[in-house]
Prior knowledge:
The chain is mainly alpha-helical. About 50% of the residues lie in helices and about 10% in strands. Helix 12 (about 320-330) packs across helix 15 and helix 17 (about 390-405) packs antiparallel against helix 21 (about 460-470).
Amino acid sequence: MRVRFAPSPTGYLHVGGARTALFNWLYARKHGGSFLLRIEDTDRTRSTTESTRAIFDGLDWLGLDWDEDVVYQGANLERHRRDAMALLATGGAYRCFCTSADLDARRAEAVAQKGAFRYDRRCDRLDPAEVERRVQAGEPYAIRFRVPDGTTAWRDMVHGEIAFANGELDDLVILRSDGTPIYNLAVVSDDIAMRITHVMRGDDHVSNTPKQILLYRALGAPPPVFAHFPMIHGTDGKKLSKRHGATAVGDYRHLGILPDAMCNFLALLGWSPGGDREVMSRAELLDAFGEAGFLAKASVFDPAKLEWMNGQHMARMPLAELTPIVGAALVAAGLATEADLASRGPAWVNRLVDLLRVRARTVVELVHQALPYLVDAVEYDPASVAKQWKDAGATRRLLAASRETLAGLAAWEAAPMEEAMRSLAAREGVGAGKLLQPLRVALTGLAASPGIFDVLMLLGRDASLRRIDTALAHPYLATTSA
């Protein structure tokens, strides 16, 4: 089995292309086949090195490794031309001397008559001597494929039996008058040379398939097995586009999505493992992936669902894998340096990540939540201050008592902290929440955080006591007598 992903380097690796690449990769890995990468760069005016690099980077990030050297379609132009000339020699194609102006005029005439334009094969009816005369005179010509009579049908792995009446197909140009190939010929020529056995792509290519099957046969090669996956829609039911938000895979990387979560999410856009399974590791995807689960119905790209799924992957991911990702993100965000993190030690960083990932859906959210534990002084959220320090006098008294209690602990450990603080709450005649919520704001600036004793352990004795002192000096509390 040999499959290929064949993007055009005219932009970023978009979500639909990534889904196609993933399905090809999963199918090849599942069946012990080869996953090949072909860059279809024959459009020199739009193809860029930057876009090619973006495709490589996107595939690398997703973990979709290819098995052989990358094939660049533009390097195969001579073979494309040879294949076109071979079809001409065997009678499968003919020279067309019609100019663009001729074709435009006939197309406009068809539109005026409210009909569909189809090439009328007038050049195929030219006398051979006339064709030779024009060739010898240097008159430019394209080469058109002669579509045979009959029907072209195939069993699609997604949609089942599909058939096109050949009479509905135009005699397509396969080689332009400047000697460059048309898409359908280049694709078929490359697929034959690469020994592709399965072509798996979006169903916007269904209309190309009968033309390509005819070209395979005319060139003496068996057509591959085809699978055409449904289009991806936005939550409004329309084709996914920039109006729905980020559509480039690289954007989701920078939004804090994990590659395994992205692959999991993309795999479910056009395929189902059966049952209620949703959150799956890469190994589970490989084990379950197969033709039986392909879906013919369009899928919906829901960013909220992607973030939820990412949160699930973050929660399940081994800390040894997640912590380096978060650490790099903390450094990139300017919240810490590598030296800062090293000085705190791997155990501390692992503990931070483990506590925060429960409340985060993305790496970006986790990084934001890590801010209070990495700065010297926190910023107080006004809403949290207004709610949790509402009674300024009582808050100051309880915070001062909390500081005295915590400062008097012989060991800075969670169990004695909790025992001492709950005893303090009982002596003050308040519920634990009335004591601990104002303390939480003092320590983190926020009303929500991991468990308060986990926060105290992360910050350490000195930093925790300093933050309580800073809170007691806050204008909201400082003007209130003890």
